[in-house]
């Protein structure tokens, strides 16, 4: 069994919990509140900005152009393509996409971003792959599952979102898994344990991101005028 397959097997309870999360089920049924959709887009926009930064850090640690090209392609994907599912959710919420940019991260999203940035700055290229992989992997599997279970038509409010992730055949997940497996072949025991730890933590934080969006999570103390 490959290293990535071992990681997926160990993370299966988290994947199953994500599939059954009420936000994901809301995407399937087409029933989510406007505030939940808006909160998700606000947070995911900033989260993906961090993803681009981490890709840049990864490029700085690459030793060959093949790896550089892989991460460079993903920067373009986030900038040019991943706006489409966001815009679908914005249409469903009745808001303009451009009005939801530049908001502060909620606690769970902030924790996830810092978790990835720390791994990127301090870790090896293998550790960066491991910390990034759960995001595209879980979305790919969510999309495929929703395509199968829902079989949406264009009248579905989240048709574009589901098709965007569910119809991807050349998934970055496949490329990341292959490169991670290659890296693991020469990695020591300690590094492989670290890669597994980072991967599983990111899986847990993926679940937390859905929960944050569903509950419209915010910081516990509202900041405003000081009361006297």
Automatic annotation (TrEMBL):
InterPro entries: Haem_Oase-like_multi-hlx, Thiaminase-2/PQQC, Thiaminase_II, Thiamine_Salvage_TenA. The keyword Plastid does not apply. Residues 10-215 form the Thiaminase-2/PQQC domain. Homotetramer. One of its GO terms (molecular function) is thiaminase activity. This is Aminopyrimidine aminohydrolase. It comes from the Bacteria. Belongs to the TenA family. Catalyzes an amino-pyrimidine hydrolysis reaction at the C5' of the pyrimidine moiety of thiamine compounds, a reaction that is part of a thiamine salvage pathway. SUPFAM superfamilies: Heme oxygenase-like. Pathway: Cofactor biosynthesis; thiamine diphosphate biosynthesis. Pfam families: TENA_THI-4. Keywords: Hydrolase, Thiamine biosynthesis. Its EC number is 3.5.99.2. One of its GO terms (cellular component) is cytosol. Gene3D superfamilies: Heme oxygenase-like.
